[in-house]
Amino acid sequence: MLRGAAVLVAALCLLPLVVVAAKALESGPAEAAELLWRPRVGELLRNTVALVVLTGTLSAVLGVGAAWLVERTALPGAGFWRVAFVAPLAVPAFVNSFAWSALVPGFEGLGGAVIVTTLSYFPFVFLPVAALLRSTDPGLEEAARSLGLGPWRTAARVGTAQVRPALLGGLLLVALHLLAEFGALEMLRFPTFTTAILDQYEVAFDSRSGSVLALALMVLAVTVLTLEMLARGRTRHARVGGGAARRPPRARLGRGLPLALASVTALAVLALGVPAWSIGTWLTRTDQAYESIDLGPAVGSTVVLGLAAALVTTLATFPAAWLVARSRSRLAVVLERVTYLASSLPGVVVALALIALAIGFVRPLYQTAPVLVLAYVILFIPRAMVTTRAAIAAVPPELSDAARALGDGPARTFLRVQLPLMLRGTLAGAALVFIAVSTELTATLLLAPTGTETLATAFWSASSSLDYAAAAPYAAALVVLSAPLTWLLLRSSHEEPSR
Amino acid sequence: MRRRTVLLASAAAMAVGLSGCGSDSLEATGDLDEDKLTIYSAQHENLTEAWGKAFQEETGIEVQVRYGNDSSMGAQIVEEGESSPADVFLTENSPAMTTVQNAGLLAEVDGATIDQVEDRFVPSSNEWVGIAARSTVLVYNPSMISEDELPASIMDLADEEYAGQWSAAAGGADFQAIVSAILQEEGEEATAEWLAALKSDAKVYQNNIATMKAVNEGQSAMGIIYHYYWYRDQALEKVSSGNTALHYFRGQDPGAFVSVSGGGVVASSDRQEDAQAFLAYVTSPAGQEVLMTEDVKEYAVGKGDESDPALPTVESLEPPDIDPFTLDQQKVLDLMTEAGLL
Amino acid sequence: MSDLRLSGISASHPRTPVLHDVDLSVASGSTTAVLGPSGCGKTTLLRVVAGFMRPDAGEVHIGSDLVAGGGTWVPPEKRGFGYVAQEGNLFPHLTVAANITYGLPRRDRKDSARVAELLELVGLPGDHAGRRPDQLSGGQQQRVALARALARRPRVVLLDEPFSALDPELRVATRDAVAAALAAEKATVVLVTHDQAEALSFADQVAIMHEGRITQAGAPVEVYRAPTDRRSAVSLGEACFLAGRTGDGVVTCALGSLPVRGASGERDVDLLIRPEQLHLGVDGGAGCPAQVTRTEFFGHDALVELRLDGVDGALLRARTIGPLTPPVGSRVSVTVDGEPHLIDR
């Protein structure tokens, strides 16, 4: 039954891909090839790849560097920095680019795009790497030291090997986000596949050319997923045997302390200070009559849609996450990975596919909230998948044996043992989904019931007329809404190494 | 133990609350409501809202609006076909309306409404009606380029001497309407060359405002936009246009193109009467006055209705003699795709 | 009357057979230890009994009920056994009391008297009821796990290496407490272990397992004294083997002709001699002369390696009282206490 549910979820996630592929190849592969084989696509490919590589590299450097400073050195105020480097998750990338463009005239192009996306996405690397560094067994590093490796070579050889799975997982999220990013890049005049697909949609609603580009984007996503899987390999990084579960030691920074402090301060200022200052400045410009802006409806629909999507998405992750965490059978891994594919598509592509399906097959659902929530599920399921899988894996399967032996059937065992133990972890996944939904733009614009406005769409319509003062309250509301959730994420990453 | 219980309880409450309030509050913010007149609007939100509110007050007919862009919304109505939820469709430019008309999805507009509008803003089919008009302009930064250095024709922007100096919002429907005027006036080959120059020599911005702002901030010397963005900003604090001036091409140049915003009644709508009433209101003197009062600054199209006095009259713009109702949108898109702009 | 009966059990992990035609029966109220090296299939056997795993063939009876085999399959929660695993597997999100009452019907879960009674049974103070598992030592966790398993008064208790994760000192104390609690409950117990001392001291019956088969089962003294093969002999403790030949009630070997039961006919055999059976006398005394080649000193006793004079490579090991260990290189004479056990080649 579990397998059936996992197959169903995977099939739902594949639906948009099927629609896109069908549309792209509608008039034969020859025309598709023609649409694909042109200089514009080459330009988009170069831009997209450059952005993924540069932002990925920078995020890795900043994320791992910050995590090491915070978790493994005697940097003062580790608790504060830990929060500071997760908090950028509460600032959507397009709010960030709005902040930078409002502050720095002419802030645009590849440089601007790399800066903004890095500052928005490096926490995806920081969060898991910091959690890992905090929890990894110092025994291995001590062993390396005893084998004659100096502290730096120990960090390079043992440290990187240990950090690798977390780093790769974080980079995967960064890359998939970049592939699907629209708002920030559109604002910064940096065309990628996703912004070009949006242009195509704007001129032709459901154009073949847009579908061809979406297909190309999908190939990119598959490439990223494959690379990550290959890099992860089959190596084992778990602790073997009951080694010491001690707190790792903190390196003394000595004369490097001022430099370290300056670096973390600079990073925090760039990632948090700039958007905070920018939004704050525009908020306090009193020339705008704020009475005329009623945030209520936008906040309300954002919260309701976010909660609904978070709940449904988390539920949808369970079957595949369970199978993967418990059996790691090839089928399970495929079912899990399939759900990552559609999420790299821009929201508009998924939305158009669902519109086509709704118009064609379930007319009464057209332009209703359930279809929008389904789009959110398809777009954001990987975020919850990662955390749900980890949460399930963290519950020792032997505990369910114990519960079975005490007379509970599988269902009651799940309710009384597994669910309570997984709850915090899955809540973190749900929080990620909520944040993603609250900042989602393009699918919301297309699928939302007529008259429904979310914070993101309201922000976008104000900010695309470059009306910074009118956009600022929505940006602030978005940040305020996400802030408590990032705290939840931090908490759950603290607890992960419980076993 | 207690903490666990609280967590569990709150999760359950969340789930229950969702199923309850989910439908409630979405309905409140507007799940598609059969009792309201549904407008698909590609027009600006402030303008649509002003019309909708005034219409609602005058007639008591409730209105709900779905916003989008010209081309995508037109295509969306075509895709929705006979069962489109839309009752009324409003555009910024004529090509998208033509697309819907050619799909046979528009009802004929009431004769009384048509009579309210100047003839040149009404297509011969009478299946939609002009509701406002906007003029192409070149916004420039006098500190970067002097008035006498400006191109005489929009076509001259393709000349080498202007390379790197001009910009446009090439991705938007507004610009594509301008290109379709160029196509009709100058032919396919000249248009393709001009677009190639745009691709290699000009900067492409997200929209008209961003284009104007870039000129204002000195990132580009000239930009092709519609007139009202500039006039609106001038009427406010000139934040995005203080350093700029406008240049009109006039003389029947394609760059003097005046674009018609349209309104149509969707044929499949079962609220024909209300939909017709809405168009009648929009084109009435009261509806046309909104174009002045709401800092909209678009041109009025009603017979005898005045536009904002700050604007030069449509006649003085010497627009090219272009039939706005036969603009070939698909050809424009093909040419732009070939040029690598899309 | 047996409380647990396995007959003809075969089981396999994907693509690897683990158990082959295993028969075992455990008498009511008795304790059976399944002894074997890791990987021999003993945990799999326990999982089959518990119902965590389905056997490929064979039947499992708990009491008079068939719970697996012949088309019958009773899920673990319906089998009514108690189960304690290697690491206790206490539910980390529940207190000690909630862990103990986990398997009870809802109305009994608030019964603090029952919790106190069970804590006392396993030798833990009653104030531990409110603690969380991570506030307990390993030995305490195991005791709670046992209390949890006993709370439902199961007919059969399954123990899967419950003491192996504990420190030696804690291990003995915990084992004693567990044995006492189990005896008080008159439970039928199956203990799986790789520790021969644990198996021999804890159980009424020891079943020796090797490569998925039970090679021998019987009372501890019996299997220790008279194992059926060399492997079983070694798995139960230190053993020396001397090659010999039977003839007329005696076996002739490097230690001379020794009277051995079953030594009839003429054939080549191995003689099992446990180190504690060898007695070392002063050089030149009665017995075979030998030289000490190595000693291993444990404190209370020691193992002494001897080379018998005259015969090539005949090495023996003897256990001596620690302080009386002869030095390496010294000469001794060796005699055998009690009868060696004959193992057919």
Automatic annotation (TrEMBL), chain A:
Topology in membrane: Multi-pass membrane protein
Compartment annotation: Cell inner membrane; Cell membrane
TM segment ranges: 48-70, 82-103, 109-133, 166-185, 212-231, 256-279, 299-325, 337-359, 365-382, 421-448, 468-490
Swiss-Prot/TrEMBL keywords: Cell inner membrane, Cell membrane, Membrane, Transmembrane, Transmembrane helix, Transport
Gene3D superfamilies (UniProt xref): MetI-like
SUPFAM superfamilies: MetI-like (SSF161098)
GO cellular component annotations of the record: plasma membrane
Alphabetized CDD domains for the sequence: TM_PBP2 (cd06261)
A single BP term in Gene Ontology: transmembrane transport
Ranges where the ABC transmembrane type-1 domain occurs: 45-231, 299-489
Assigned protein family: Belongs to the binding-protein-dependent transport system permease family.
PANTHER family according to UniProt: FE(3+)-TRANSPORT SYSTEM PERMEASE PROTEIN FBPB 2, INNER MEMBRANE ABC TRANSPORTER PERMEASE PROTEIN YDCV
Protein name from the UniProt record: Iron ABC transporter permease
TrEMBL record, chain B:
Family: Belongs to the bacterial solute-binding protein 1 family.
GO biological process terms, semicolon-separated: iron ion transport; transmembrane transport
Region Disordered: start-end pairs: 302-323
GO cellular component: outer membrane-bounded periplasmic space
Taxonomic lineage of the native organism: Bacteria, Bacillati, Actinomycetota, Actinomycetes, Micrococcales
Key word Iron present: yes
Pfam families: SBP_bac_1
Keywords: Ion transport, Iron, Iron transport, Metal-binding, Signal, Transport
Recorded GO MF terms: metal ion binding
Protein name: Iron ABC transporter substrate-binding protein
UniProtKB/TrEMBL annotation, chain C:
Enzyme class per UniProt: translocase
Gene3D superfamilies reported for this sequence: 2.40.50.450, P-loop containing nucleotide triphosphate hydrolases (3.40.50.300)
Keyword check for Translocase: yes
Keywords: ATP-binding, Cell inner membrane, Cell membrane, Ion transport, Iron, Iron transport, Membrane, Nucleotide-binding, Translocase, Transport
Listed EC numbers: 7.6.2.9
Matches recorded under SMART domains: AAA
GO cellular component: ATP-binding cassette (ABC) transporter complex
Domain annotation ABC transporter: ranges: 4-236
Entry-linked InterPro entries: AAA+_ATPase, ABC_SmlMolc_Importer, ABC_transporter-like_ATP-bd, ABC_transporter-like_CS, ABC_transpr_FbpC, Mo/tungstate-bd_C_term_dom, P-loop_NTPase, Transp-assoc_OB_typ2
Any Pfam family the entry gives: ABC_tran
MF (Gene Ontology): ABC-type ferric iron transporter activity; ABC-type quaternary ammonium compound transporting activity; ATP binding; ATP hydrolysis activity
Domain of life: Bacteria
Name by which UniProt lists this protein: ABC-type quaternary amine transporter
